[in-house]
Amino acid sequence: MNAHDSEKVVGTLLHEGYSRVATAEQANYIFYNTCSIRDAAEQKVFNRLQHFKKAAGKGKVFAVIGCVAQQEGEKIFERAPHVSLVAGSASYSRLPEMLAELEAGNRRVTGLNLDTDQTFDTPFTSRDNPHRGWITIIEGCDKKCSYCVVPFTRGPERSRTGASVIEEAARLAGLGYTEIQLLGQNVNSYRDPSPAGWDFATLLDQVGRVPGIKRVRFTTSHPRDFVKPIIDAIDANPNLCNHVHLPVQSGSSRVLAGMQRLYTREQYMERIEWMRQAKRPIAITSDIIVGFPGETETDFEETLELLEEVKYDSIFSFKYSRRPNTPALELGDQISEDEKTRRIVILQERQRAIQMRQNVELLGEVEELLVEGRYESSGQWVGRTTRNRNLTFVSPKTDLLGTYVPVRVTRAGPASLTGELI
Ligand code: SAH
Ligand code: SF4
Fold first, then answer.
1. 124 lies in a domain?
2. Domain shared by 249 and 141, yes or no
3. pLDDT tens across 166-188, in order?
């Protein structure tokens, strides 16, 4: 989401007549997009700002945008007086105005209002990837997971109209894009604000019907709002990828309650069952947090058991990190850093073993890849399957980028697959 915000901000700046340069030294304006989801994000930002200041030289205008900007607000001007603009993502639709203020010499420009129903839609997005185009369909988050800073940095949920999403997808198809990835903190609570009133499953299906679009992905799904019609849509429309990222966070219903995730382990498993009954095999991936305050050894064991039960295709795992403003900050029984490290190492080892077993089963299978890159040094190509697996293969051909090719899996590791072009 943050990387795509950068693409939209860059596109807006280019449209306003600015151009991109290679180094901080060459720049007049330096935009620094920040994320505050975990760790000592604030400190990192201040350290980097000092570093950029030195690298850029005198007389430069600095802008700090994104979640750390929203979280720290005007404090940034005090701690880093060389910064002139501080704005969170909920204010990006006002970027042209804020730029005009900077141009007029105002050295304390802010965009910090979270109370908005605006979304940042722009036709000028400057995309880095020429094959897979991200499209934001919903901004902000109305869930209040007790560990999470997002509701305080991205504001309330607001959806774009279905028509504007379809229009953007069609424009991307016209530019040669074949894959679309729909983005939102919780795409499942998407609700078209126009009279059409599409829900997420309808939008997904419609994007999958845009001529030229061969693959549609979406992230992230909150299990609470994940409904069966999403699976029905995947079943009915072969252009919707066989992959669902459904973050569980913990395998213990007790911890889930403390996290205010609004579902139990059993309810989560019910959604996994829907996926298992789908017509095509669906890859399932997840996010997991270890060491949430009060997580006991038994709770942690339940998460390990859940890994075995679901057999995720891959996971992102994180040590719980205390975030400003969040309710979990007040909870007692914080887990020590050493213990969190011990747990995440065990978790990742278990997951590696699961992935190894699953990847070995793919040996001999033929997968269709969208070829996304080439490693010049080794002559290898890399592509992605509909189930979101990366596969590498060697081919003397030179024109495979962006094409769809069949590849037979010949070698499997826990995190990688190798194959041969058929
Ligand atoms: N809206 C998405 C994800 C947002 S952040 C969702 O609900 O799934 C991505 C992931 O970062 C989360 O799924 C969670 O696993 C992790 N995360 C968020 N806040 C965290 C924190 N304070 N400590 C550790 N991990 C965190
Ligand atoms: Fe954060 Fe929960 Fe919202 Fe995801 S759903 S962004 S984890 S509050």
1. no
2. yes
3. 999 999 999 999 999 999 999 99
CB 393 within 8 A of CB 420: yes
The residue to mutate among 226, 316, 318, 341, having the most atoms of ligand 1 within 8 angstroms of its beta carbon, is: 318
Q: Closest ligand 1 atom to the C-alpha of 322?
A: 22
Local structure of residue 346 (DSSP, 8 states): H
Q: Are residues 230 and 378 in the same domain?
A: no
- Beta-bridged to residue 236, according to DSSP, are none
Convert the pLDDT of each residue in 120-135 to its tens digit: 999 999 999 999 999 9
Band of residue 262 on the pLDDT scale cut at 50, 70, 90: very high
Going by pLDDT thresholds of 50, 70 and 90, the confidence category of residue 376 is confident
The verdict on 296 and 406 lying in the same domain is no
d(CA 188, CA 218): 10
350 and 384 belong to one structural domain: no
Q: Which of 360, 376, 410 is the last residue of a domain?
A: 360
417: containing domain = 366-421
- Separation CA 131–CA 220 (nearest Å): 20
Q: How far apart are CA 276 and CA 103, in angstroms?
A: 56
Q: Closest residue (by CA) to atom 19 of ligand 1?
A: 148
Distance from the alpha carbon of residue 64 to the mean position of ligand 2, in angstroms: 23
What are the pLDDT digits (tens) for 66-109? 999 999 999 999 999 999 999 999 999 999 999 999 999 999 99
- What's the pLDDT at 39? 84
Q: What does the angle CA 359 – CA 362 – CA 365 come to, to the nearest 5 degrees?
A: 155
Pairwise CA distance, residues 276 & 71, whole Å:
40
Q: Are 346 and 317 in contact (CB under 8 A)?
A: no
pLDDT tens sequence across 317-339: 999 999 999 999 999 999 999 99
Distance 43 CA to ligand 2 centre (A): 23
Please tell me the number of the ligand nearest to residue 262's CA. 2
Residue 121 CB–ligand 1 contact under 6 Å:
no
Q: Find out whether the peptide bond into 326 is cis, omega within 30 degrees of 0.
A: no
Whose atoms come closest to the Cα of 184: which ligand?
1
Rounded-to-integer distance, Cα 167 and Cα 181, Å: 14
Determine if the pTM surpasses 0.85: yes
